Amino acid sequence: MKKIVSLFLVLGLAGSMAFASGSQQQVAGGGKAPLIGLAMPETHVERWQKDGAALKADAEAKGYRAEVTYADADQSKQNQQIQDMLTKGAKLLVIGSVNEGVVSAVSDAAKEKVIVIAYDRLITGTADYDYYITFDNFKVGQFQGKALETALNLPAATKDKPKFITLFAGSPTDNNAKVFFDGAMDILKKYVDSGVLKIVGPAPLSSSDTANFTRITTENWRADVAKARMENLLNNDAKNVVLDGILAPNDTLARAIIEACSADAKYAGGKLPVVTGQDGEVASIKAIKDGKQYMTVFKDTRNLAKAAIELADALLKGQTPNIPGARLDTTSYNTGKKVVKSYLLEPVVVTKDNYKQIMIDSGYYKASDIE
Ligand code: BGC
């Protein structure tokens, strides 16, 4: 009997130790720590796995329990994942949504008084949440536009010898895709208007030109969709012209576009167009180092995750958020139902000249990752 009792004691002790040190964190004074649900949209774009991992680590470091899910760019899957988090009693959700279909899940959260933070992507079509945290998306686009302006030396271009570019945008259901594009056009439009920059293929000058904008978008940010569209352009509108540049909205699509161009005789032997990007994906940093991709816009996911968890912590404690390194914007981001309070972090331009400093010295990648 004694033996059995001590066995129970040992098992009980081991069990509670595992409980305290594992993911099931407890708050001082007993009871489970509040659960934060982290709903990420996809993994086919590299950054989201880093976002998910950093968010989870930061939430746990602050004493919360945290669960991260990835939705494979499928909104109904994400809604199910969010429902599961609500069933488990999540007190706050950080959502990087797939598309506007997320509003039903956001409304369920609001009914249960669960706080929602839109993460990186604005959730449109609802008034059921108050906070959005992201990078300055318009500036991301401006950086892409400025890169083309500089690399193509647009201020010196003339109507007799214009420069030629073609345009790509991100997913039509991601609000960011519009903002990136409008940021780029904020820089490029004047050159198109004066006739020194020619757009090959569909030529929206603003995302509000819905018909033309839709034609340059890339469903769910899929590389195969962008590659097929680039191949199509090379066989049609861009058949008899040498492109000087391509506005590519992120690295995943940039590399797909570069792959399509590389198979075209006009661009063989290192004469690729200037291609923009975004995210600082490892394969694109290599491509930048090798002179295939011109630039990327780095949005340090470690900083965004940290800031999001600071915001979450303040909201859960009923405190006024103070997010170091973020600019509060209370006017720009309208869901269509209300303007949400937005915290914007600063993106950084990365080219051949500074990739070592920005991507390696900062510890985001190891030097051996880029070799
Ligand atoms: C993000 C980008 C990302 C893209 C595709 C956008 O909403 O801001 O960083 O490349 O989605 O996942």
List keywords for this structure.
371 residues; alpha/beta; seven-stranded mixed β-sheet; four-stranded parallel β-sheet; globular; binds beta-D-glucopyranose
Q: What does the model show?
A:
This protein is of the alpha/beta class and 371 residues long. It has a seven-stranded mixed sheet with strand order 2-1-3-4-5-12-11, with helices on both faces. A four-stranded parallel sheet has the order 7-6-8-9, sandwiched between helices. The chain has a two-stranded antiparallel ribbon with strand order 10-13. Strand 1, helix 2 and strand 2 form a beta-alpha-beta unit. The longest helix has 20 residues. The N terminus is likely disordered. The site of beta-D-glucopyranose has 12 residues, from loops.
